[in-house]
Request: fold
Amino acid sequence: MPPLQPLSAATDPPESPPPLVVVTVAYHSEAVLPALARDLARQRHRPQLWLLVDNSPLVAPLDLEPLRTASRPQTDPPANLTIRCLAGHEGDGFGVGCNRALNQLASEGWDGWVWLLNPDTRLPGGNELEQLGQQLAQLPQRSLVGTAVLDDHGGLEASGGWIDPGLAFRSRRLEATALAAGAPLAVDWLSGCSLALRPGAHKPPARFDPAFPLYYEDMDLCLRLSARGAPVLWLPQPSVRHHRGQGSSAGEPLRRRLSTISYLRFLRRHCPPWVLLLRTLRLLALTLLRLPLQPRRSLAVLQGIGPALGPDPIQP
Reply:
């Protein structure tokens, strides 16, 4: 399949939605990806490319044929959905997988917008890419842009919010009333479940920090780029549906260990030292109390505390 054509913002009329590449990081996600393939195929404004990163290439390699079957042309005249797969490393996290895709796109000359979508998201309206593209055309190129993420019942998930200096550092989140907003809302962080950015508009190009193996990598990216002057904006429309927990089959002990590392590293990077101390002591106390009843879970958390509080990896 030919590589992407290089994109320059100056070549696109300002009123037209910019082309989008959709990136999805998959890890044992074969059960949910066909549904997303169907939704992407019936979008009025199709992505330039759907690039999937396979983070389980050895144990459960991703088969693109069911996705191509699910995305067969559903329009008149027919328009195929361009799908490509990029092999990752077994067990890589979300941020590392996204970085692999962004590096590949940059090597092919792509300088446009990229929409990161979880494998267990859905685009039921058929016009979500068009809506997003129209708004991106009016926003600063260095923006990080998140969309509303709705759960199975139509409720608003934690798709954006603000960071406070105290113990409840992430308690201020967007509420359902934000869905009625008529303009983008400025926030401190956005969910990586549905996040658009133009990586090449940032110097150095925007990348996730691999020090966060599971969770908090999206918050960290937003805070780092915001500190360099990038707007962090949340859109009430378009909205995506999220079937939480169905995008990956990672084992619970592994998930606990990696999420503990990310959690404590985030506190270490972005919160006052006393918050890190008190929250670490609380986590340790609860883990030791659960140890007799939940030994596997507790041991996984304990295995994550050490690396998180050890030497801090170099930030990108």
